[in-house]
Design a protein that fits this description.
Blueprint: E1 13-15, E2 30-33, E3 43-46, E4 57-60, E5 63-65, H1 71-77, H2 80-88, H3 110-115, H4 123-135, H5 148-153, H6 171-178, H7 205-208, H8 231-240
Helix pairs in contact: 2-4
Length: about 240
């Protein structure tokens, strides 16, 4: 499928959500302008309330999906298949990037359009279906590759170093993290009192030596290997003596 040329940096589609059933058949705040050639509509006209002195406004979009549009209608008319072809580059060469985003107020149907519902698949599921069907025989056979367990067993952990999570709560690490300036303003959120966490000091020497691949504590030094010992571990070892 060849995507029609567009002079815009991106295309904007408008999808109208059906009104809640409890609202009944009230006055519409907008009208979809029909096209003369019978093609898909591209314009909407806002109808201001009669008690307000506002001009009638008209807005243009790449295409307007009315309330009865299905997920497949949106998927096909937005030509997402051409995006998938650009990413896969079937003719060879480097693939192209593609982004599909939804914008709207809360409850306008963004999640329904992207993720779908129990009865209709969303754009994400439809796109992934086309993507994996297009890959076909190029998908990696999991039976022909090493499993994660095999790859872990093949790793020599003789020289590995295990560090407990409590290490990251040490003051030097906390200071380095706190000194980093935020890249943007913080998102406003509700602030509430959080109970101060309590930590339990657990001797790590007995735990680490029981783990697979841990460096034996009583291993004789060898000129062919070097063992890095932290200051905390060395102090603890001297106290045990």
């Amino acid at each position: 499928m060849e995507r029609k040329a567009s002079h815009n940096l991106f295309e904007v589609y408008l999808r109208l959500r059906p009104p809640p059933t409890r609202h009944g058949d009230g006055d519409r705040i907008l009208d979809v302008e029909p096209t003369e050639d019978g093609s898909h509509p591209k314009h909407i006209i806002l109808n201001p309330p009669t008690d307000r002195r506002r001009a009638i406004e008209k807005f243009a979009f790449t295409q307007v999906f009315e309330e009865d549009a299905t997920q497949l209608d949106v998927f096909h008319c937005t030509e997402i298949v051409s995006f998938v072809e650009g990413v896969l580059a079937p003719e060879g060469g480097e693939g192209t990037d593609a982004v599909v985003a939804t914008l709207g107020v809360t409850g306008s149907g963004k999640t329904h359009t992207i993720l779908g519902s129990k009865t209709q698949r969303g754009l994400t599921q439809l796109t992934m279906d086309v993507l994996f069907r297009s890959i076909g025989e190029n998908i990696l056979d999991p039976n022909a590759a090493f499993t994660a367990q095999d790859s872990l067993q093949a790793i020599d952990g003789a020289e590995s170093s295990l560090i407990t999570a409590s290490h990251f709560f040490d003051p030097p690490f906390r200071d380095s993290v706190a000194s980093r300036a935020p890249s943007r303003a913080g998102t406003p959120m509700l602030v509430r009192q959080i109970p101060k966490p309590s930590y339990v000091n657990i001797p790590t020497s007995k735990l680490v030596t029981n783990l697979p691949g841990a460096f034996p504590a009583d291993c004789a030094p060898s000129p062919k290997s070097v063992r890095l010992v932290s200051e905390v571990e060395e102090t603890r070892r001297l106290k045990e003596r």
